[in-house]
Design brief:
This protein is α+β, with helices and mostly antiparallel strands. Among the domains are: 10-48, no CATH class; 110-211 and 433-490, no CATH class; 509-556, no CATH class. The protein contains 17 helices and 17 strands. The protein starts with 9 loop residues before the first helix and ends in a 27-residue tail after the last strand. The relative contact order is 0.13. Residues 1-11 and 13-65 have low confidence and may be disordered. Residues 21-74 are annotated as: Disordered.
């Protein structure tokens, strides 16, 4: 019969070891340790904890379970923490040192006088001209006579907004169909012209792209995107609280940095890191996620991105709220040097955490532990017996627990309120999105840029003009104003065609009685005609003639 291992419970194994005869031992003292740690703890975290063999084992107490106030602890990264007691029902509130002025900047106030101008504060004429030049350059690779004016490009964008407002469901081509017709779209441009512009839409010069991609994965959109984010920062000054969060723009295009995020409604897309004003949901800055970089040290990305996002808004006494991806003790110290505080959650795998904070087994439900490292406090709260929440804050001078049954500390209450800025801004942008089917990731990024620009323009327009229009009505007016210049061009061209047709009709009354050979092409010199071109006055045969609509005497 093969040998089988038999497992014993802790109590059974203890009894079994006590029954072992002395003659069966090697003469040494038999000792064993029972692991009473929390079974729900992270296995990877347990393997990373460094134990000191010279220090005596620490007794675990399941009553209060925590060390006394004033005890000092050293984390794995060398950070020194001092435990403190959480206050209860204190009326003291953390001070505010905010010295900035929230709202539109002077530049935006001077410029914003209409819906269109609020949009052009963010996507300016220079950006539109760049997109136009790159699009024309791409189209003329196959059609040398292809052209596009900046007014027609704005009309193209207006078609996207018109569909977002009037028909959010369905394909883009349905806007020209008989069953789902949108009159404003059909009046602006034909379906074939829209498709032609979309096929050739480009945002950079293709001739130099291969060289730029070697150092910048975002090269196809980096120039336009950087100018957009600069305009966002230059047009609006955020309030005291800024939320740094991640946005996932849903798309399934082939892209080297497409990401899968299971916690989002649309799990696949291009990720952006955003800095958002908590009060107005204005997106102040945004950076795309371009994938992993093996040469970058671990942990450097999150701190570098967070500092890059909030760099234009430092030194004014603001507070930055982050999630566990960005929050770190070093980031809190760097922000404090720039007169900016930090509030964010941390994971239990962080090396900055003091050893008692990891001990979940010795913590009661609804208990709060506070640790201090300089001007930064760490709140350890247990909402359940098997779950622990870590909140790092340089914003609160004192941690105060509530008087309700859950004893929730003020650091967690404030974080739950302030963390919603990024999610709310993402929901605002997605409500009336111009996103439609595409196979090219630069176009998908362009859709996201239009959504964020429209959401920010609405904030600017309300703040500068005091308007109370709904956002849907604002987008409708934006679509109409974007196409206004192109509609005037179309009206002028139609009037010119009518004038030419009238002149051609008038010339018919003065036709000569003789015919002569065609003077346009050599291979038509045997064709004879009495008709002349109204511009160059050359005799033109039927093959060389551009037929126009006739105008009667009454309409002349």
């Amino acid at each position: 019969m093969p040998f089988r291992w038999k497992s014993y419970a802790t109590k059974d194994s203890s009894a079994l070891m006590q029954k072992v005869a002395d003659v069966e031992s090697d003469g040494g003292e038999v000792s064993f340790t029972t692991d009473v740690s929390d079974p729900s703890s992270d296995k990877d975290l347990e393997s990373e904890v460094e134990e000191d063999d010279t220090s005596p084992p620490r007794k675990k107490n399941r009553g209060t379970g925590m060390n006394e106030a004033g005890s000092s602890f050293t984390a794995r990264d060398g950070s020194v923490w001092v435990q403190q007691e959480a206050r209860r029902q204190s009326e003291e509130v953390h001070g505010s040192s905010f010295t900035g002025r929230a709202g539109p900047t002077e530049y935006a106030k001077r410029k914003v006088c209409s819906v269109l101008q609020s949009f052009l504060c963010l996507i300016d004429i220079g950006m539109l001209l760049t997109i136009r030049e790159c699009t024309v350059q791409q189209a003329r690779r196959t059609d040398p006579n292809w052209n596009l004016s900046h007014n027609e490009l704005m009309a193209f964008i207006s078609v996207l907004f018109a569909k977002a407002v009037m028909c959010q469901v369905g394909a883009m081509v349905d806007c020209w169909s008989e069953n789902f017709l949108i009159p404003a779209v059909k009046e602006t441009m034909s379906r074939d012209r829209f498709t032609s512009i979309m096929a050739n839409l480009r945002f950079d010069t293709k001739d130099t792209r291969a060289e730029r991609v070697k150092t910048d994965k975002f090269a196809a959109m980096s120039d336009v995107w950087s100018r957009f984010t600069k305009n966002c920062a230059a047009s609006f000054s955020p309030g005291q609280h800024i939320t740094v969060d991640r946005q996932l723009f849903p798309t399934k295009v082939h892209c080297p940095f497409t990401k899968l995020v299971t916690g989002k409604p649309n799990k696949v897309g291009i990720e952006f890191w955003m800095a958002t004003d908590l009060e107005t949901k204005y997106v102040c800055n945004a950076v795309p996620y371009l994938g992993k970089d093996p040469s970058r040290p671990r942990g450097e990305l999150s701190e570098k991105v967070a500092m890059r996002l909030v760099e234009p808004f430092l030194d004014a006494g603001r507070n930055v709220t982050t999630d566990s991806f960005f929050t770190s003790l070093s980031l809190a110290h760097r922000l404090l040097q720039r007169n900016t505080t930090l509030l964010g959650t941390m994971t239990k795998g962080r090396r900055e955490l003091p050893p008692p904070a990891r001990d979940a087994a010795a913590r009661e439900q609804f208990s709060t532990s506070v640790f201090k490292s300089g001007s930064v406090s760490l709140t350890v709260y247990a909402p359940t017996k098997k779950k622990t929440v870590f909140v790092l804050s340089s914003m609160h001078q004192h941690v105060v627990t509530g008087d309700d049954g859950k004893n929730k500390p003020n650091t967690i209450t404030d974080y739950n309120y302030m963390k919603s800025g990024g999610d709310d801004a993402e929901q605002v942008a997605r409500k009336y999105s111009v996103r439609t089917a595409t196979r090219r990731w630069p176009v998908a990024v362009f859709y996201n840029m239009l959504d964020l620009a429209a959401a920010n323009a609405y904030v600017l327009y309300k703040a500068c003009t005091g308007s109370t229009d709904t956002r849907r009505l604002f987008l409708h007016h934006l679509a109409m104003e974007l196409r206004s210049g192109f509609m005037r061009e179309k009206a002028s061209a139609a009037a010119a065609d009518t004038t030419a047709a009238t002149a051609a009709a008038a010339a018919l009354h003065n036709l000569p009685n003789w015919t002569t050979q065609c003077q346009v092409r050599k291979n038509c010199n045997r064709n004879r005609s009495r008709f002349c071109c109204v511009k160059c006055h050359r005799y033109t045969c039927a093959k060389c003639r551009e037929h126009e609509n006739w105008v009667c005497e009454e309409c002349k």
